[in-house]
Input
Amino acid sequence: MSVIPLSQPDISKAEIQAVIDVLRSARLSGGSRQSRFEDMMAELTGRNHGIAVSSGTAALHLVVQALDIGPGDEVITTPFSFIASANSILYAGAKPVFVDIEPQTLNLDVSKVEQAITERTKAILGVEVFGSTAGMDQLAAIAGRHEIPLIEDGCEALGGRHRGQPVGAFGRAAVFGFYSNKQITTGEGGMIVTDDDRLAQSCRLMRNQGRSDLLNTDTKAYQSLGGALLAHDRLGYNYRLSEIACALGIAQLERLDEMLMARREVASLYIRKLMDFQDLILPNVKSPDAMSWFSFVVRLTDQYGQEQRDRVIMGMRRHDIGAANYFPCIHLQPFYRHQFGYEKGAMPIAESVSQRTIALPFYTKMDETQVELVAHTLKVMLQREQLLRP
Output
């Protein structure tokens, strides 16, 4: 384990006590804590519904399914993201159509989205990469003009705002993930937020194996089974989130402002320490948006390639500092190349960016000494690369 890991959850006594309280109760699943967590997320995002699920990936899958997207359909999305955003489209039998990214924000290039829309396009799935919300309002406008839904992937942007609107307020539905490296964590977990009553109910059914709403005993399925609890209205999945995870999520949400502030302070430290590094492109912070920092990802300048970037990362790891390449392009992953025939050069900006990104250690409890050590080690690795040049 690295002396300074890539990420680390922020767990306080409040979270520990919340979990203990659940373990001492008689309800470990589908109880009041789930309802409370859902209500808190709906309130945070200004939505009518929150639906807690087992992961951000599960949230994406359910939304795609609830929108009746299936074989023969296309969904426009980004090639520069964690692979789950595109995989969720494949789960429904549809095809992800990749559009290149904007080189500053690293989100979808909105100027290229409209030309990718065809009669088969059934949705746009926009990802707020590394917490950046840039272009989300424009994607919503494009989706509105073409009468197709926008799915907002806010898994890396919880607590941020875009032009006065909270992350999660855009599109037909938005999704969040609560893995241990996110702004808040439930260990594993996710959330769907929406104003669409039908979509919300569909997602609730599907997360619980397609079981009928147990409060609605008037359904035909319920009555045909003699009032049995195991009445399944449609194909579903085991995507429930436990009361233990929801209790953890509630306690984390109650500390969200404090944790977002701490992450902003760590990001500010990095920017001060790294702003004079001529070989680095720092995250784009010249924005009217309130940034929710998921990670701190720098990019090497064009004089570096993937081989040099990888040596820098390995050098930092040898010095017990967590570092990683965020993200490899989805369309060049082996499965996608085999399935769809993508070749290098298909998404030139995303490919250029992905070859030179370095995610630095980033979490709420980092202090200035740790940030200084990361910055110093990165500088040494860059100087080593300069000496290796012919």
